[in-house]
Amino acid sequence: MKTNRLEAFSDGVLAIIITIMVLEMKVPHTVDLAGLKPVLPVFLSYVLSFIYLGIYWNNHHHLFQATEQASGGILWANLHLLFWLSLFPFTTGWMGENGFASTPTAVYGFVLLMAAIAYLILERAIIAKEGRESLVAQAVGQDRKGRLSGALNFVAIPLAFVSPWIACGLYVLVALLWLIPDPRIERKLEKREQ
Amino acid sequence: MKTNRLEAFSDGVLAIIITIMVLEMKVPHTVDLAGLKPVLPVFLSYVLSFIYLGIYWNNHHHLFQATEQASGGILWANLHLLFWLSLFPFTTGWMGENGFASTPTAVYGFVLLMAAIAYLILERAIIAKEGRESLVAQAVGQDRKGRLSGALNFVAIPLAFVSPWIACGLYVLVALLWLIPDPRIERKLEKREQ
Amino acid sequence: MKTNRLEAFSDGVLAIIITIMVLEMKVPHTVDLAGLKPVLPVFLSYVLSFIYLGIYWNNHHHLFQATEQASGGILWANLHLLFWLSLFPFTTGWMGENGFASTPTAVYGFVLLMAAIAYLILERAIIAKEGRESLVAQAVGQDRKGRLSGALNFVAIPLAFVSPWIACGLYVLVALLWLIPDPRIERKLEKREQ
Amino acid sequence: MKTNRLEAFSDGVLAIIITIMVLEMKVPHTVDLAGLKPVLPVFLSYVLSFIYLGIYWNNHHHLFQATEQASGGILWANLHLLFWLSLFPFTTGWMGENGFASTPTAVYGFVLLMAAIAYLILERAIIAKEGRESLVAQAVGQDRKGRLSGALNFVAIPLAFVSPWIACGLYVLVALLWLIPDPRIERKLEKREQ
Fold first, then answer.
1. B145 with B119: CB under 8 angstroms?
2. Cβ–Cβ < 8 Å for B172, B48
3. Do D65 and C98 touch (CB under 8 A)?
């Protein structure tokens, strides 16, 4: 089994999730800039989720570039990841529409956490198939960044009940971890091409 | 006619169906965990439908990997399958929003049944084109698992009026039949690659 | 310019249009079969539009299989076709929700007509690029079936004000014209492969 | 990193944005042509946005045809562009539903401007990767047309408060700039193929 159709399907699902989230931003019924004010928290939560989905798409893209073949286990591990990502529009809307209240912010973090775990499972499923000496196993390694992200998300969930802003700060921190380019990975990828 | 565009189109439709279903989960207007309570049955029906669509995507993927060429009949048999799958968001929403009442649960099963029949028709259309000695004909065979699934779905429809939970139990059973990997198929696929 | 990305984009748009239409079928709030009664006309108009979009996808698929290169004009002619097709969910919903009243049924036919014209324009744009001796020019020819479909749609619009059922009968007739396989085209396609 | 998956993902997002906008056109509850009257401004804003997204898709298509490899920076510059384009359904709906009032029309222009800037950033990111002597650098050049479009959008924002129709006139003008084929680009593309 080649991975190209799995990639195309995942691209499709991710593209729809990222675009459907914008439907949670309801068109205001007033025509002045004040009409945008209630939309602002929904917009901010949309930006955050957009960045997360962008990060997942980027990482997924890199991961499968190093993967040669798919097994039944990989297909289901991938669907499991897409399942948790598909809940992003729901939790994004709930958090945004309620102005980052504690419970919705914690539930948002829970779905982030489950997606992070699903991604780690997907990595293990691929390495189990490709072997420990494979390119993908070397590129992924222990995925310390992935584990750290998951841990920060885990910590953020109870902290959302102390203050939702601490939780949101942690979500932003995790996103920044991935947005800032990692020179070691780029180097490894460049080497591979040679 | 090659099958790649048929696969891409089917991937697109399946990706959208799977993602649009989540829109039936309306964002709650309260901010505590109790606000998630009315969403729970919708969520459970979403999980069930997500798994079914994942199974269809997996099987579709396998089926067309063994198919070399498409005919007009195959294109329409495929669209017929996509039609029934496209009704999943509607029946999932109806069943979930009404807490698994008898009639919506039976109608959910009816659409499952029609999709199962459409899949069997698609298999026959492909075998008719590729020939009885073809790879795909050998891989699919009598598709006893597919027929059994259809039969269980058929039985579940009247049983939904006895108790919706019996029907749902059967839907879950059919899903489990496909989720648990089938060693014979994997073996056949591995042989093929050699 | 190759045509593969144009095809992928069109597949995406068509896949979304076909799936978004189902959102017009609102989940009923009652749990008996009578709850499905108001959904029935919406369902029937959905079936009709699904078949039309299936026909367009099939024809589009065949057309671009015979097309080698895209020009700027072809890209825009294709977008023009997608524009009219993108109005299907709106006209389908309007016609279905009002139980096939005259005006919505006529407007539905108008969009069908514009899509048929857009398709003929797309064919001309492709033949202009590929040349009159090209494979695609021979396969398409005068596209008498396409012109006949457009003419029947044109006639149906005023007839919708006499009786919407005459108009709907004509829409169904046009669909049947395309659903019933045309042996001459299949033969031509088979010859081409040799 | 090859660009094909980036293109497929962008196609998916663009296809969904273009189709989701049509959901802002709410099905009227009356059955005469007068029922379409309140839909008209929404329809006109939909047509405008459809054309803009068509232009972006066309330009994106041309740009990546000349691009050989993607870097992390290009992936994020592309996601940044998709982010602003994903706001089109929101601003289109707001502008259309309020009959082209000043503020929504200005906000519409702001998102157009940000998308234009994001596109210029994407071009720079690609040229930075491919080199100043590359095909893509020569084809894009200074992208004076892109800069002019951005400038016109920038001017239109304050003018929306003088008269929304001046702003809309400028939006239409920018669209026409791109719709009318540019012989120099076509020539350059043809030369490249030789």
1. no
2. yes
3. no
